[in-house]
Amino acid sequence: MRNTGDQGSTTEADQPVDGAGYGPASPSETDGTTREKSLGVDLCLSHPDLILSDAIENSQDVTVRPEQMVDDGASSFLVIAAEGTTLDRFETELEMDETVCDPVVLDWTETDRVYRVEVADSAVRISPSLVRAGGRILDMEGRGGQWNVHAQFRSRSALSQFRSECSERDITFRLDRLYWTTGDANAGACGLTADQQVALETAHKAGYFDVPRGISQAELAEKLDISPSAVSQRIRRGMDQVIGSELGLTEE
C-alpha cells in the first residue's frame, strides 16, 4: 500500500469546512432567492484503499473509467473501461489489487478493454459520500494511483461537507478547479451539458467528424485540455444525447 501523506493536500485540509474560501456565494446562498446556480468542481482524490488504486498506480500509462456499478444485494460489481498501451500488465495488477476480485474481460481491442470486477467490502468508495453531501459525478477517471473527478455540487456547503468526509476517512483531497454554473450553461442544445457542447462544437470545427479526420483524438484532447479518454466519453455521450433528442427517442 502507498503513503499518500505527501501528495499536496495540506492546503485543502487546512481550509474551513463551512464553505468559506470556496469562491463567491451564489444568490440562493445569500438572499434566499430561487437556486439558479450550481458549483462545478474538478477534484483529485487518492487513498491506498480507493477502488483500483494499486492497479492504476502500477500501470502508469493506463487510464480507467467507471461505466456501471451494480449491487445485487450480496455483492457489488463494477464495469470499467481501460485504455492504454500496457493493458496486459494492467490485467496482472488487477488480479493483485486487493480492492477488487474476480476480474472478467467483457470486451477488448488492442488499446481498449472493458472489465467487470467485484468490489471488495474493504474498498473505499467515493460516490456514496459525494452524492450524500449533495453532489453528482459528471465524469471520472483513474490514472497514476489517483482519481480525477469532475463533479457538480448544489452549494459551497455541500462541497465542504464532502471535503470533510474525505478528511475524516484520510482521503487526500485536492481542489483543482471551481466555478459557478447557471442552469442555462448546463442545458445547452439538445440538453447537452456545457462540457459536452464545447467538446462537440470544437470537434466539429476542427474536422474530427470528417472522413478522413482532420484532427486526431489526442490532438483534440490537447485543444480541450483534457485527457483523450475524457474526449472519447464526452463525444460519445454528447452524440447519444443529440441523436436521442433529434430523433425523439426516450429511454424506456
From TrEMBL:
Residues 1-13 have a biased composition (Polar residues). This is Helix-turn-helix domain-containing protein. Keywords: Transcription, Transcription regulation. Transmembrane segments: none annotated. InterPro entries: BAT_GAF/HTH-assoc, Cro/C1-type_HTH, HTH_bacterioopsin, WH-like_DNA-bd_sf. CDD domains: HTH_XRE. Residues 213-233 form the HTH cro/C1-type domain. It holds the Pfam family BAT. Signal peptide: none annotated. Residues 1-36 are annotated as: Disordered. The keyword Ion transport does not apply. The keyword Ribonucleoprotein does not apply. It comes from the Archaea.
